[in-house]
Every structure is written in structure tokens, then in C-alpha cells.
Write a structure and sequence with these properties.
Helix content is 10%, strand content 44%. The chain has two helices and 17 strands. The protein has helices at 3-19, 220-229, and strands spanning 35-41, 46-52, 69-74, 79-85, 91-93, 102-109, 112-119, 126-135, 140-149, 158-165, 168-176, 184-193, 210-218, 240-241, 245-250, 254-259, 266-267. 23% of the residues are buried. The model is unreliable at 1-12 (pLDDT under 50).
Amino acid sequence: MNRLIRYIIIVILSTALQACEKELDIRYKEIEPITVIEGQLTLQGSNVRITVTTPMGEPMDSTLLTDATVTLTDLSAGSCETLIPDRSGIFTGPSAGIPGHQYELTVLRDSKSYTARCDMPAPADLLALEFNWIKMPYDQVAVLQVTFTDNTVIDGDCFWVRLYRNGKAYMWNIITDIYATSGVINDVFMTSRRDLDEEDEATALSDGDVITASVSPISREMYDYLEAISSDSNGPALFTGDFCLGYFLASPTVSASIPFHPDEIADY
């Protein structure tokens, strides 16, 4: 087909579609707030955050709730620990997770019960963090490469890689061992543009900022959950009992940090 004719057809179709636009009045059904549980067990201890969903159209309410009884059971060792909320409202416990053990988190709140189980896998080794500048059509972008090990004996390993900027959540990604080469995985993050005047505040990096990367081995169910919420879905249910949202993750998370000095970063 002649390119000019093809272009004219596209323009005509676009105009027709725009002419068919209609303003929709979407009415949301009001539902009771749903309990949201975010629980983690690491090699340093446990922490559980409890919130409730916010009605559509209202400002997000992230208030942490403490009107619950939270217990963590090591099913492999037969021990049980009651978690206590700290001053910020996070339920915490000092007992470290043990790779190879299975754990159960139970939350009792408002006459309802929520339970989740998770096996703690072996930790990965975080081998290196490295920044490089790459040339994009619009600017140079600082790319951070996170290099860590994968268990070559087991296929289908999944990982949750999180970045923190000066201690605050910055970016995250999930990746599987399909990208491993000789037992090593390189996960890459496109971070800040060099021209900070054109960069969004949420991703801008300034000289001296410290980026911390953490690597958590996760189950396939947790991988599917994170994949779903990254697409604005609630994801699969990870708790049994009464209905709630959230997750429980037992993982030997490892981390390392790197300072951001733009003048010291090499061009890729």
C-alpha cells in the first residue's frame, strides 16, 4: 500500500475514533474496608504492618493498626512467638529466620483470622553493584547493575530486588533464574537522567545519594503476587481463613550499598 494512502487512512481512523468518544459516569460500589497485612521474616527478625483499604475517591490512609494479635510460628522447630507493636505501629519480633524452615504467620483482628505459610529458602550472594552512564536519545541515564548468585541446582528460582535511596523506597523489580548465566544474575535498573532539571523528583539522583540494593529469594506465588500488583491488581490470595489482602514473606534478604557520584561513573 502506498505510504501516503496508509497515512491518510490512519488519520481518518483516528479522527473517527475521537469523534466517537463519550464521557462515562463510572459509579463505584462502596465496600467495607479490607484488612491489608504485609509481613516479612528475615535473618534479622520479623516485622508486620497492618492497614485497611481506603474507599475510592478518598485520600490514601496508611495509618498502621495495632488492634490485633500477631503470632509467628516456626513449624519446623515447633516454636511460637507473639509479635509486639513498636512505637510506629509495626509488629516486630527478634527471632531470626532460619533457611530451610517453614513459618506460619497468624493475625487475629476484629473476630477474624488470617494465616499464611512460607518456606525460607537459602540466601543469594550479592556480588556487586555498579553504575554506568548509557546514552539515550533524550539524555544520558545512570544504569545500576545488581549482580547476585543463583542456585544452579534448582530451576525456577525467583527474586525480589529492591532499591532504597538514602534509606527510603526507590525502585523494585522481580526476576527469575531464566536470566542467569553460569549461576549469576545481572538485574539492571534505569535510574536518573544526568540533566536533573529534566528528571522527575521521584527518580532523580544527586551527588552523594546512597543507593542500597536488597535481594530476596521468593516463592513463585510471591512472584505472581508482585507481578500482579505491579499491574494494579490485588494479586492472588496468599492468606487463608477470612479474606484479606497482602503477603507474608520469609526470606534471607541480603543487601549492599553504593554512593552515587555522577562524575565518577563510566560511560557504557
